[in-house]
């Protein structure tokens, strides 16, 4: 059994402020969230982390599951002395947030699910992609990443594709296998955190219909925002409206939850 360890992370923003955790997507690092960092870190303590084999996080020593990734984030919060947070995640980062809200509802004061899903399609293609990357490296999936992640008119894909090219093949493949085994569709009604679902209207991997709409309909009281002219990494392609939606949701839910405290560490 793989030991749950806290992931590589970084804290920005004022000490003592309420904490928002930002989870990255498959094939990207914590720097996926750089477009949102200046606005969020003015009023929030921003905690970003890397997935196994991504960024500065070492490759996994064994199988990876979304449950295990969520437990790693919970362990990180324990180590930092943080009891309760807001959580925003893109794609697999959103799946981690959904799982954390189910496994540790007392820790999630507010939830933002961006370009993600309660189930990422049939398991077979994810296992096939994992096998391809283990066999040939990340090159083949990096070559087609811009087309999966962004609309054809977006000209800023290079930094994000570079994150994927630098990703450890074993870490990428293990996260693919984690997505293959992920399905919380039947449990969405158990989520108690106030939830915002953000979708890109041109998202190919997790289009609004069949993914974001299932989250918005399944999570009690969830709100859905669909961002125009945005693909799968909507926070990178359309940072303005995504950042605005996140801040409005955080401000609204912070006022609802008086137990949400920051950390001085």
TrEMBL record:
<dbReference type="Pfam" id="PF00561">
    <property type="entry name" value="Abhydrolase_1"/>
</dbReference>
<feature type="domain" description="AB hydrolase-1">
    <location>
        <begin position="18"/>
        <end position="124"/>
    </location>
</feature>
<dbReference type="InterPro" id="IPR026968">
    <property type="entry name" value="PcaD/CatD"/>
</dbReference>
<feature type="domain" description="AB hydrolase-1">
    <location>
        <begin position="175"/>
        <end position="239"/>
    </location>
</feature>
<dbReference type="InterPro" id="IPR050266">
    <property type="entry name" value="AB_hydrolase_sf"/>
</dbReference>
<dbReference type="InterPro" id="IPR029058">
    <property type="entry name" value="AB_hydrolase_fold"/>
</dbReference>
<dbReference type="InterPro" id="IPR000073">
    <property type="entry name" value="AB_hydrolase_1"/>
</dbReference>
<protein>
    <submittedName>
        <fullName>3-oxoadipate enol-lactonase</fullName>
    </submittedName>
</protein>
């Amino acid at each position: 059994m793989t030991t749950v360890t806290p992931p590589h992370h970084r804290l920005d923003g004022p000490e003592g402020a309420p904490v928002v955790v930002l989870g990255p997507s498959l094939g990207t690092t914590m720097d996926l969230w750089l477009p949102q960092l200046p606005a969020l870190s003015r009023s929030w303590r921003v905690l970003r982390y890397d997935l196994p084999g991504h960024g500065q996080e070492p490759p996994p020593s064994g199988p990876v599951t979304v449950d295990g990734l969520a437990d790693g984030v919970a362990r990180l919060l324990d180590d930092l002395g943080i009891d309760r947070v807001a959580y925003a995640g893109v794609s697999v980062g959103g799946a981690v947030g959904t799982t954390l809200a189910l496994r540790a509802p007392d820790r999630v004061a507010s939830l933002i699910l961006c370009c993600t899903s309660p189930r990422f399609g049939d398991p077979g293609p994810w296992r096939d992609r994992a096998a391809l990357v283990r066999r040939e490296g990340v090159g083949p999936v990096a070559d087609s990443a811009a087309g999966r992640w962004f609309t054809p008119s977006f000209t800023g894909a290079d930094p994000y594709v570079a994150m994927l090219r630098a990703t450890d093949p074993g870490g990428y493949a293990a996260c693919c296998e984690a997505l293959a085994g992920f399905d919380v569709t039947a449990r969405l009604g158990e989520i108690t955190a106030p939830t915002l679902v953000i979708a890109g209207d041109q998202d190919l991997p997790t289009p609004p219909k069949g993914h974001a709409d299932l989250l918005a309909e399944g999570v009690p009281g969830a709100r859905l925002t669909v961002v125009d002219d945005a693909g799968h990494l909507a926070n990178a392609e359309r940072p303005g409206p995504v950042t605005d939606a996140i801040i409005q949701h955080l401000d609204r839910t912070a006022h609802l939850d008086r137990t949400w405290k920051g950390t001085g560490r």
